[in-house]
Amino acid sequence: MADTVTTGTAVSGEGESTSSPSATLRTGRDRRGRGRRIAERSRFGLRDLGAEALAGILQRPGRSVLTMLGTVLGIGAFVTILGLTATAAGQIDKRFTVLSATEVGVDDTGTAHGQGQQPDPAISFTPDAGARVEALHGVVHAGVYWPVPLRSPRLGAAPDLQSGAAGDGSGLAVYAADPGALAAMHPTLTAGTLYNAFHEGRQERVAVLGAAAASRLGITRLDAEPAVFVDGTAYTVVGIIGDVQRHQEMLLSVMIPTSTALAGYGPPGEPSRAKMLIETKLGAAQLIAHQAPIVLRPDDPTLLTAIAPPDPKSLRNDVTGDFNTLFLLLAALSLVIGAVGIANTTLVAVLERTGEIGLRRSLGARPRHIAGQFLAESTVLGTLGGLLGTSVGVGLVVGVALTRDWTAVLQPWAVLPAPLIGSVVGLLAGLYPALRAAWIEPVEALRR
Description:
Layout: E1 10-11, E2 17-18, H1 21-39, H2 46-59, H3 61-95, H4 98-101, E3 103-108, H5 129-134, E4 139-147, E5 155-156, E6 173-177, H6 179-184, E7 187-192, H7 197-201, E8 206-210, H8 211-217, E9 227-230, E10 233-244, E11 253-256, H9 258-265, E12 275-280, H10 285-296, E13 304-307, H11 312-352, H12 354-362, H13 367-404, H14 412-415, H15 418-429, H16 431-438, H17 442-447
Parallel strand pairs: 6-11, 8-10
Antiparallel strand pairs: 1-2, 3-12, 3-13, 4-6, 4-12, 5-9, 7-10, 8-11, 9-10
């Protein structure tokens, strides 16, 4: 601030000035020093700037905390959103399970595309369809299955059971499935075994029951070679499936070999046509979906339609992209609200401290010193809000990850710049109030 100026001139009792050589020399030196001191401009160092900004913030701590709240919410939302989207992206691949990512379905459309024909009643899959597809590199299991075309079939543990009696299988479905399809479903046996290529080749009347179907029929043990009767035709039960990883509806059905179903009930009809279930190695599903129709029906691949799982990378990008866009807009809105709060509070502080500003100006403070002081206060508020918001955001991401048993993913580029963003928000928010404070006239300020 401005320095106090003193002179070395002596004054006599009559009011006249007296001087001596030494006094004259001293007076000359004092005048030169006074000239230097008058010419010297006031200085406002960074240390002083920081101290004044901190004093201004601590003078009204409640207001300062409320002012920072908008920035805390904005920065916290920013860090939380980027952290949760990165964490969620890492979980999409897990949620998009290996089973789903390695499953390809092939539907029998029964007619060539674009020819306007009615579906052919004959099955479009050849008898060796499973073997053909399993010969492709990347295929683990493949097989054909379909609902047996029976209208209101009578199922039971005995040939003639009345509806509602013990062992009555009313409401159960009958499926034809070859051994490859059963293997692709990843069944868990609770009793017996699955039928195999021997049963398939000889059109054996054997059946595998789902756990719910076996319970409905009252069949729990296979040592007595029980049979299930479908419209009076007996099928020896060779196995009971307790669970399947694909196609849970099979647990409430009776499964028989496809060759047996074709011989006894004919090909599948509309609208439930035959389908193929293919299990692939991880990463091969898209390629197998392209190759399977050609391998199965090289004469007319359009008779079959392959359905591959969606690309997990595309799915992840779509989900995280939408998630980022929506919530980053909310984070930006929070930051704008925070900036408005800081600007409003800083402007109110300028109006409240007009007398103080006038006093500082009269003591030698320059306009840039006043502007720097209020800019420093708003920037400190923004920085503190950014630091608190970053801490809150990181804590939320880690907390959600621990709650959901996820692996928290926090990118450095999303966390480290967050406090700086808060500082920039505070700096921009304080520009107008600081400029207004800088150009307050000292005389007018002291009159208020």
